[in-house]
Amino acid sequence: MGWGGENFKKRSDMTDYNVIRQYNFPTTIRFGAGVVKELAGHLKVNGLIRPLLVTDPMVAKLDFFVQIKDDLEAQGIFVAVFSEIHKNPVKSDVEKGGVAFREAGSDCIIGIGGGAAMDVARAIVLRIHHHRDLFDYDDLIGGDQYVTEDVPYFITIPTTSGTGSEVGRSAIISEDDTHRKRILFSPKLLAKIVFADPLLTMDLPAFVTAATGMDALTHNLEAYLAKNFQPMCEGIALEGVALIHRSIVTAVHSPGLESRSEMMIASLMGAVAFQKGLGVVHSLAHPLSSLLDTHHGLANAVNLPYGMRYNIKGSEDKFRKIARTMELSGETGTAVVDRLFELNQELGLPLHLRDIGVTKDHIEELSDLAFADFCHPNNPRPVSREDFKKLYTVAL
Ligand SMILES: NC(=O)c1ccc[n+]([C@@H]2O[C@H](COP(=O)([O-])OP(=O)(O)OC[C@H]3O[C@@H](n4cnc5c(N)ncnc54)[C@H](O)[C@@H]3O)[C@@H](O)[C@H]2O)c1
Ligand SMILES: [Fe+2]
């Protein structure tokens, strides 16, 4: 009897071994304190001298941003800056960025900032040589088939530790009028190189550190639980959970290079892992940003314990592993959920939706939007519209 004989117990989350799958892992990542100083040299080696720096209006004023711009200019590089973007970026931000690229005669794009800035930068990368309506490229309607042309050289520099957009292939951009989130996706939109420098996050305020960090934790947890067969991503996701659980409280309340570095690499790992899929928590969170302009990480943080409680049924073994990874005394899903509530409390984040402006009157519309969202089809446990309504009601 071979290894696959009658004693071999097939894991419930494994699917058909006859199916051929593709696994892509991301691009070159230069990681470490001070690594952003390599930027000018990298541009020159690649014959690039006119970068368009895409950021948000807040980051554009921060000392480290001004320093990066000054350093580039001191080395003979002609820098243009585009920073007219919304907190939850919209299509017109991308169109304006495309105009800025052409007017400046830019030869490459550098997305520097949080997920919002990097997503707009990535969408501008698409915009330059692709001339259909931007949302014709929406992945959910098969738009990636139109991403056929070359794209400008693209570099990402994260300054928050949350979305992991720096290693992503997609940009989340909203419609200007409805604020509905659309996804632009193509492997061509992956950055050629990432400069991940934890020093850029040293002055990130406590609230942003907490909210973005909980987004990263949500990515790792949801990716680990997502139902596709992708064991490499599961390994990365579990280590991401371990790093965040070990560092997030310190990164928020008494930050140092160690905790900020661990948060930065773990957020990057979360985004590598979530090519496996996300789940119910992101579907609960997205409508809050669309309807109430809630920050993405904050929306995830509040919903995370509720969504994870929903997921325990059927995933008990995986929750046991999560509990061990988090070094909890109880090795159950309930212990994980309790710890997530406690973590939000320790980080000064709200525990209820009412604390972030949600009322009973919002629940019907939120439930419609959540059910229409693209993330929950990968959730390990199916989620109906009625389930979303119950989850919002309990979290209220
Ligand atoms: N592409 C993806 O895969 C993906 C995944 C998840 C979320 N997103 C998108 O990412 C966005 C959220 O990104 P985020 O959570 O990084 O938030 P963010 O980009 O909105 O940044 C949060 C705030 O922090 C400020 N900030 C950024 N860096 C700073 C620094 N070093 N010091 C001080 N302040 C700083 C910004 O100005 C902003 O006010 C949303 O638009 C969301 O839709 C994208
Ligand atoms: Fe997210």
Short structural description:
This protein is an alpha/beta fold. 46% of the residues lie in helices and 9% in strands. Fe (ii) ion binds at residues 163, 215, 219, 282, 296, 300.
What does it look like?
The chain is α/β, with parallel strands linked by helices and 396 residues long. The chain has 13 helices and eight strands. The strands form two sheets. The protein has a six-stranded parallel sheet, covered by helices on one side. A hairpin with a 6-residue loop joins strand 6 and strand 7. Helix 5 packs antiparallel against helix 6. The longest helix has 23 residues. The protein is globular. The structure holds nicotinamide-adenine-dinucleotide (NAD) and fe (ii) ion. The site of fe (ii) ion has 6 residues, from helix 5 and helix 9.
Uncertain residue segments: 1-12
**What is the spatial order of strands in the main beta sheet?**
1-8-5-4-2-3
Based on secondary structure, the structural category is: alpha/beta
Number of helices: 13
Oligomer: single chain
Instruction: Assign an overall shape.
Output: globular
Report the bound ligands by name, code or SMILES.
Answer: nicotinamide-adenine-dinucleotide, fe (ii) ion
Number of strand elements: 8
